[in-house]
Amino acid sequence: MSEDTVRILIVDDDPDDIVLLTDDLAGCGYEVWTASNGEHALAQAQAQPVDIALLDVRLPGLTGLELIPRLQALLPEVTIILLTNYGTISQALEAVRLGAFDYLEKPVDPQQLRLVVTRAWQTKHAHAEVLDSLTHREREVMQLLAEGKTDNGIAEALGISVYTASTHVRNILTKLNVENRVQAAMVWNHHMGRHHA
């Protein structure tokens, strides 16, 4: 396996869905592992670290949502995409809150799946490069932002003006190409988890 090969874990209790997803992704050159439930997925992740996990929401035992933090504890750098037949807005919001990258409804359109997987991989690497290139001060601001500090709180902690703190935050959001502070905090926490795993 080359260093550039993207490793994907598919967790779904429907054998037909597993075959379709595996054939499609393996045909695109990805290395694919599969699991039929949450416990099996955790065992697979321990045995073979993966880059991306596709989780069905409805699984026997652990649900896909319950599996997210367990997988992230094992693999802080993993990118998670949820799959479901029963999508709701509240479920999608909860998935994103827990750290999922995206949320797709089944039956999954193969072209859409390939686009989301490609975007997940590119975003992950783009964010890592940006975070690695931040100045010392920007890293301090990011850490405080990830702790939930307001611009006032960041300014106070670092002994800078609120205007300067706000400017740093705006610049960081632009560099990361994210829409808000919550997304920036998620990127930072995933990045720091990867480096301290």
- The average pLDDT is 85
Give the oligomer, counting copies of the same chain as homo and different chains as hetero. single chain
Backbone CA Rg: 18 Å
The CATH architecture of the largest domain can be named as: 3-Layer(aba) Sandwich
Shape: elongated
Structural class: alpha/beta
Strand count, sense and barrel status of the largest sheet are: 5 strands, parallel
Task: List the topology elements.
Elements: E1 7-11, H1 15-27, E2 31-35, H2 38-47, E3 52-56, H3 64-74, E4 79-84, H4 89-97, E5 102-105, H5 110-133, H6 136-146, H7 151-158, H8 162-176, H9 181-196
Parallel strand pairs: 1-2, 1-3, 3-4, 4-5
Concise overview:
With 197 residues, the protein is α/β, with parallel strands linked by helices. It contains nine helices and five strands.
Descriptors:
197 residues; alpha/beta; Rossmann fold; Arc Repressor Mutant, subunit A; 2 domains; 5 strands; elongated
Explain this structure.
This protein has a five-stranded parallel beta sheet with strand order 2-1-3-4-5, sandwiched between helices. The protein is α/β, with parallel strands linked by helices and 197 residues long. Helix 2 packs parallel to helix 3, helix 6 crosses helix 7 and helix 7 packs across helix 8. The chain has two domains: 116 residues, 3-Layer(aba) Sandwich (Rossmann fold), CATH 3.40.50; 63 residues, Winged helix-like DNA-binding domain superfamily/Winged helix DNA-binding domain (Arc Repressor Mutant, subunit A, Orthogonal Bundle), CATH 1.10.10.10. The radius of gyration is 18 Å and the shape is elongated.
